[in-house]
Specification:
three-stranded antiparallel beta sheet, SET domain-containing protein, S-adenosyl-L-methionine, four-stranded antiparallel beta sheet, SETD3_SETD6_MTase, binds S-adenosylmethionine, 549 residues, protein-lysine N-methyltransferase activity, 10% strand
Length: 549
């Protein structure tokens, strides 16, 4: 921020960013450098604010891209006001709010109005973005939440502060609802460290004396085994918390054989099978040995496979990774925060760090939440297959992280000095409806994938000038890709969605997931088909030009 006449904001891509080179290239393709100073002039020109915000946002979006978003980022899309993903958009907008806040704290009186104007414009954009992109949870009014309210009172008597109350939400069991209008930066929930369940609690027990002798046992497993017993401890400090937990979790880990069979032809089948095998192996390593050797500490009736699976589902679906003030990352169960559901357009994005000043965990809003609206978190940038396996739900709306990985050799070994390679080592697709660029040579498909396929046919095929000269090659690339996805759809088989209503919870989820996979595969196949038509037209035009001379 300048203190003289001109008021400016500097946006900088850190050289420590793991994707510095790729982001720099993308910035340059849009005419920006990794460090840009944007002047905020309340000039006479009408619309200067919108023009300035557009520039700030274009840069901030690229700076905030994560690896997967970067893979799908399109470098020559003209529509600059389009977002890359809800996560990216909210991060980008919030990063600008933060920059204006820093500038406001140091600027001269002269610039306060400009910065406040900019801040308000960005806050309005955040609000509009949330309204357009969120799926609002519907509150079920006829459920009592007595147990949850008791937990809340217990929390408050231990120093917890909240602007949320618990209610039942259609299709998601319980959720947290704003008690009043909350704005960006407000703390929706503040939890003192003293009521967070973390490994330190186990250290005080005789169970820990036994478990710490087991080679390679993780603190997550220790906590999991502790919670299996603590659930039944009437004197537990956390009894009220354990009483609010569901008796059954319904994640992919407890899918029936029928539901798993329905997933045939999808990668989710393997993901679930592998996760279950891993848990079975872990259980078999510990039991019945621990029960036989220490029956007082590990009563056999509390350490059955079913109860072990329940605890695994509890920890997978309800735990959070928290950075404590000592710099240690701990996997924790957090009473009340565990009622917050996941959204693809969350209100709370960052909540993983204990504030050393208050020794508490704060859940601050990255977008506003109106009174009565469900307040949601981001559990992470997860695909639907991960969310089904470990959380047991398929989020509503377009999930930017729903990709189908491609089993092709991803390494770009044929790097040519003059032709910059994109050096992605793995390749994937996602629903091409998420792309904004369906023009010839892009087709709504990710450019790193197209570049790789082109280069593996002919190392010189890279730039669009080369592409024009080798339309046949391009046609083959699309033909091969289309074949892969047509085969995939055939392997998945057809599902009768009309039967859905008579199905069990897991069969419904399996059907919905398969339907999603089919839609992604179908969109890729259709985009290839449309692309092939465009190429054939181009070829006809070229032939006609040749004939005409
Ligand atoms: C941390 S808990 C959230 C509170 C939970 N709804 C409850 O009643 O205990 C995570 C679980 O909530 C459910 N859930 C979270 N987000 C959801 C969503 N967007 N749609 C449906 N269910 C969701 C899933 O069952 C998930 O395993």
């Amino acid at each position: 921020m300048d203190t003289d006449e001109e008021c400016s904001i500097v946006l900088e891509l850190s050289e420590r960013d793991p994707f510095f080179d790729k982001k720099k290239k993308l910035l340059q393709s849009k005419g920006f450098s990794p460090k840009e100073r944007i002047y905020l002039k309340s000039s006479s020109k009408p619309g200067w604010m919108n023009a300035t915000v557009e520039v700030l946002l274009q840069i901030a979006r690229i700076v905030q891209l994560n690896e997967l978003e970067l893979y799908f980022a399109e470098d020559d899309v003209c529509t600059s006001m389009e977002s890359y993903s809800p996560r990216n958009e909210l991060e980008a907008l919030n990063s600008i709010v933060l920059l204006t806040d820093i500038s406001l704290s140091t600027c001269t009186h002269l610039h306060t109005n400009i910065l406040q104007g900019l801040r308000q414009t960005i806050l309005d954009l955040i609000s509009d973005f949330g309204d357009k992109n969120s799926v609002k949870g519907v509150v079920e009014k006829n459920h009592s939440c007595d147990q949850e309210e008791r937990l809340l009172e217990w929390g408050e008597s231990n120093g917890l502060m909240t602007q949320l109350k618990i209610a039942y939400i259609e299709g998601a069991s319980r959720g947290a609802i704003a008690r009043k209008d909350l704005k960006v930066g407000d703390i929706a929930l503040e939890i003192p460290v003293s009521i967070i369940i973390s490994e330190e609690l186990v250290h005080e027990t005789d169970m820990y004396g036994v478990l710490k002798e087991i080679d390679g046992i993780s603190s997550e497993t220790i906590l999991l085994l502790w919670s299996m017993k603590e659930k039944y401890n009437c004197d537990s400090k956390f009894k009220i918390y354990f009483d609010t937990l569901p008796e059954k979790f319904n994640t992919g880990l407890s899918f029936s054989i029928q539901a798993i069979t329905m997933l045939d032809g999808t990668l989710l089948l393997e993901e679930i099978m592998q996760a279950r095998q891993h848990l079975h192996a872990q259980y078999d390593e510990l039991f019945p040995a621990l029960c036989n050797n220490f029956p007082d500490i590990f009563p056999p009736e509390l350490y059955t496979w079913e109860k072990f699976l329940w605890a695994c589902e509890l920890w997978y679906s309800n735990s959070m990774k928290i950075m404590y003030s000592d710099g240690k990352l701990r996997t924790c169960l957090i009473p009340l925060a565990g009622f917050l559901n996941h959204s693809l357009c969350p209100h709370v994005m960052h909540y993983g760090k204990v504030d050393p000043a208050t020794n508490s965990l704060k859940f601050c809003l990255s977008r506003p939440c109106r009174s009565g609206e469900e307040c949601c978190l981001s559990y992470g940038n997860f695909s639907s297959s991960h969310l089904i396996t470990f959380y047991g739900f398929l989020p509503q709306g377009d999930n930017s992280y729903d990709v189908i990985p491609l089993d092709i050799d991803g390494s770009d070994v044929d790097s040519n000095e003059d032709i910059p390679v994109s050096n992605w080592t793995t390749h994937m697709v996602r629903g091409t409806w998420l792309s904004k660029d369906h023009r010839i040579f892009n087709y709504g498909l990710p450019s790193p994938l197209l570049d790789h396929l082109r280069r593996s046919r002919s190392p010189m095929l890279r730039t669009k000038t080369f592409l024009q000269g080798s339309l046949e090659n391009e046609l083959e690339v699309l033909e091969n890709l289309k074949d892969i996805f047509d085969d995939m759809m055939e392997n998945m088989g057809k599902i009768d969605l009309d039967d859905r209503e008579n199905c069990s919870w897991d069969e419904k989820l399996a059907m919905d997931f398969k339907d999603l996979q089919r839609r992604i595969a179908c969109s890729v196949s259709t985009s290839c088909h449309t692309g092939m038509d465009m190429l054939k037209n181009e070829l006809c035009k070229c032939m006609a030009e040749d004939i005409l001379g």
